[in-house]
Amino acid sequence: xxxxxxxxxGEVVERxxxxxxxxxxxxxxxxxxxxxxxxxxxxxxLIRVTDNGRGIAPEDVPTAFQRHATSKVRDSRDLHQxxxxxxxxxxxxxxxxxARVELITSTDKxxxxxxxxxEGGEVKKIEDIRTTKxxxxxxxxxxxxxxxxxKYMKTIQTEFGHISDYIYRLAFAHPNxxxxxxxxxKLVLRTPGGGDLLQTxxxxxxxxxxxxxxxxxxxxxxxxxxGWIGKPELTRANRYGMTTIVNGRYVRSYALQTAxxxxxxxxxxxxRYPLVVLQLTMDPSLVDVNVHPAKLEVRFSKERELMKxxxxxxxxxxxxxxx
Length: 323
Ligand code: ADP
Ligand code: MG
What we know:
The protein is an alpha+beta fold. The protein has helices at 2-12, 16-29, 91-97, 147-150, 156-173, 197-205, 207-211, 254-263, 303-320; strands spanning 34-40, 46-51, 100-106, 112-119, 122-130, 134-140, 178-183, 186-190, 213-219, 223-230, 242-246, 249-251, 276-282, 287-288, 299-300. The relative contact order is 0.12. The chain binds adenosine-5'-diphosphate (ADP) and magnesium ion (MG). Magnesium ion is lined by residues 22, 25-26, 86, 91.
């Protein structure tokens, strides 16, 4: 069991950002609308995720750290239509096998909950505790028992960069959630929640940037599009300013990026990219998730139609704007 967890950990827990990803996705799965992420030293010494979601029932606390105890995949077909973010039931056991984990959780407003401490995959303590509704997971000393993995970590700034980049995308995918991100006791990001995408954009890119974004909303037989696109003056030197969200998940797609850049083709200086946040909705059968679940790349079965749709709709907004 411990060996299996370590092997799984190698896949699930590549670096601090992968721990953050798994913990925050669990918070979102639990319907939290407030998620606080506290990081120390790029996540290598501390990752703490606190949410106000549904919590874990006392009887489920011991099994939450067992492999596949909770896998939501019941059928291979489920893999093609994943609705909740987590589906492998491997994240918590994997994380707990390579770090010191403390979980505090409660499912109700009684003020009572459980605390569970796990080190290197071993349960050290499960006790009653006074706490508020939701879940608070602290992961300390990541890879303390796998020094070979620790050696692959880059600088603290690089590791934190992966974390913040991920949280920004997640905030755009979930404008209804108020995210707080703190690194070494410094507030890095606070999004308002409440569902307004433009306010989330303002929290991430600044109010000045948000003020020069143009609204996009369109729909055809296959695709629904909503988002905000920057005026050409808001260009970036790299592609990171283009966020594409498909059916609620942040994805990377060369096709989508190409279509976006095409829409701006005469408007951008060479080697500059626009600031864009797009939320797309389509039938899940049109999205190919037949890749490693941790990877963010996707393919679309109606790729050419989708590219044309994006290029046309963004082009329409840009041409109609007073630039
Ligand atoms: P998965 O998310 O794939 O089910 P995880 O190992 O990530 O597996 O989590 C195991 C289980 O623990 C989840 O299915 C969920 O029931 C519970 N859980 C984990 N984190 C939270 C959380 N923040 N709030 C509520 N339940 C949680
Ligand atoms: Mg999970």
